[in-house]
Design a protein that fits this description.
Elements: E1 2-5, E2 12-15, E3 18-21, E4 24-27, H1 32-37, E5 46-53, E6 57-63, E7 70-76, E8 78-85, E9 96-102, E10 108-111, E11 115-121, E12 125-132, E13 141-143, H2 164-167, H3 172-181
Antiparallel strand pairs: 1-2, 2-10, 3-4, 5-12, 6-11, 6-13, 7-10, 7-12, 8-9, 8-11
């Protein structure tokens, strides 16, 4: 497996080894020791699978007090996947990493706990998998608005299909102000 570091601390782009021939391919999508060797040591407690149509944007999501680490991949189609540093104490606060994940490039993205995460669908349909290090708690949910100009994500679409919830997420400045109020 190839491991590529990014400008965000702990965020990794992973390229599993793919064995293919005229019949198709085989790859290990997770193997505990290999991923530990890459620095991913937290236990996974929940797997999620979503299917979305072209133009859908999901995110940018996070959990406030019970942050999730996520190992994400796209098993069908293609997505543009993004992690954003939302920790006001971090040297990389407000910066993001974006990478295309697809059923052709087989890439995975490791997003440690504490980052906001989202993706948009580039293909007609995409199946997206998440391995999570914490359970999902709806009452702990938070996020960052997808088009915050202070982050400046270069999304490959201009008018995404968004959920009602994702249309009203706060800006980076609002997240920082809220963190300051609770003394983080």
């Amino acid at each position: 497996m190839k491991v590529q570091t990014t400008e965000l601390p702990g965020v990794l782009i992973l390229e599993p080894q793919v064995f293919g021939d005229h019949r198709g391919f085989f790859k290990e999508t997770f193997q505990v020791q290999r991923y530990r060797d890459a620095g991913i040591e937290l236990p996974f407690v929940q797997d999620n699978h979503s299917r979305s149509e072209k133009g859908v944007l999901r995110g940018l999501h996070l959990q406030k007090s019970r942050p999730q680490g996520k190992l994400v991949s796209c098993s069908r189609g293609a997505v543009y996947d993004v992690a954003v540093d939302v920790d006001p104490r971090s040297a990389t606060f407000g910066r993001y990493v974006g990478v295309e994940l697809s059923d052709e490039n087989h890439l995975q993205l490791w997003i440690p706990p504490g980052y906001a995460h989202g993706f948009c669908v580039l293909s007609e349909v995409a199946d997206f998998q998440y391995k999570c290090t914490e359970f999902y708690y709806p009452e702990d949910e938070g996020g960052l608005i997808w088009n915050d100009p202070d982050v400046g994500i270069d999304w490959p679409l201009l008018k995404p299909a968004l959920s009602q919830k994702d249309q009203t997420l706060p800006t980076l400045k609002q997240l920082a102000a809220a963190a300051e109020m609770v003394g983080e």
